[in-house]
Every structure is written in C-alpha cells, then in structure tokens.
Amino acid sequence: MPFLPENYEKPETNSKYYKFKSGDNIFRILSEAIVGYVDWKDKKPIRTEEKPERSIDPKRPYKHFWAFVIWDYRDEAIKILEITQSTIQDAIFNFHSNKNWGDPKGYDLNIHRVGEEMDTKYTVIPTPPKTLPIEIEKLYLETPIDLMELYKGDDPFNPKSDNKEKEMESDIENAPF
Question: What three-state secondary structure class fits 113?
Fold first, then answer.
C-alpha cells in the first residue's frame, strides 16, 4: 500500500495574502492603498513609508510597494495584495489616472501572469465597471484589517490600533459601490 493515496493532491494553504499564479488572477480592490518601501532582514519583510538610504542586504535591493485589501474571486476571500512589480503598478496607475476608468475600486482587475522567476511577464486587464456585490461589501466592512500594521511588522488581520475604524470610515465615504 502506498504512503499516500493515488491521485493525492496536496491542498493549497489559504493565505490571507494574495499571490499571483500562472494565468488569470482576478480580484477587486476594496481599500485605499498604502505605499512605501519593502526591504528584507532575516527573511522577514521590513516596510517603511520613507525611502531607505540603502538596502539591508546589498544582494537584495529594497522595492517600492503598494498594499491594499482585495476580494480574491479564486478563493472567494478577503486578502491583502502587495505589489512591487513596476509594470503592474504602472498599469493600475494609468487606469486610475484615466477619466474613462478612474478609481480601480470600481471594477475588477485581471493580472495575467506568464513565465517564472526572472522571465515572468504580467498583463493588467480591467473589466467594465460594475457594482460590488453587497455580500462582499458587507464582509469587507466586518473584517478587521489595518494595513498600517504592515509598517510595524505586525499582523494587519489582528490590528492593535483603531486605524481600521478610521480606514473603514474613509472607505465608506469614498466607496464607489
């Protein structure tokens, strides 16, 4: 008898952080973005709002990041997406700046990923604007997330401050849905 059953597939872990997979990655941005720089120390991310003078590890340069809360259609879950890829940032910035698209919280995005490691290419495709389903909006508003905890190295899904309430109030006032 084999150690594992035939046709066994290891289940994927349901991370609270979104990771691009090969092919289509469809999501809806739910929150305002925080921006800054991410560096690495002992395999742990160090995020700052200010640009560092130099990288902690010269072999691994710091990167500019955007982080925001999303609805992951694949896992049907609220997650945090951190983007360091300039091609993706540029595309989303261009949609955001375009009067025909505007705020990316008003439509879904599809980031199509092809390739691996240094040969990875991304294409950003917006879908026509549509109203966010009320169930997703409600779940987002009921989920305690404080992106500012990322700057402290803490868990944004277990906020230690009242920043989430302030962020939620701002999100409700500015919500396109």
Answer: strand
pLDDT-derived band at 172 (thresholds 50, 70, 90) equals low
- Structural domain boundaries of the chain? 23-172
CA–CA dist 9, 52 (Å, integer): 42
Dihedral of alpha carbons 141, 146, 150, 154, sign: negative
pLDDT in tens, 44-55: 999 999 999 999
Q: Which residues contact 37 (CB under 8 A, 6 or more apart)?
A: 47, 48, 49, 50, 51, 52, 62, 63, 64, 65
Q: What angle do CA 28, 32, 34 make, to 5 degrees?
A: 115
pLDDT digit string (tens) for 16-26? 999 999 999 99
Count CA within 13 A, CB hemisphere, residue 28: 23
* Those residues with Cβ within 8 angstroms of residue 143's Cβ, 6 or more apart along the chain or in another chain: 78, 157
Average pLDDT across the chain, whole number: 89
Strands (E), 16-149: 23-29, 34-41, 44-48, 63-72, 77-83, 108-114, 121-126
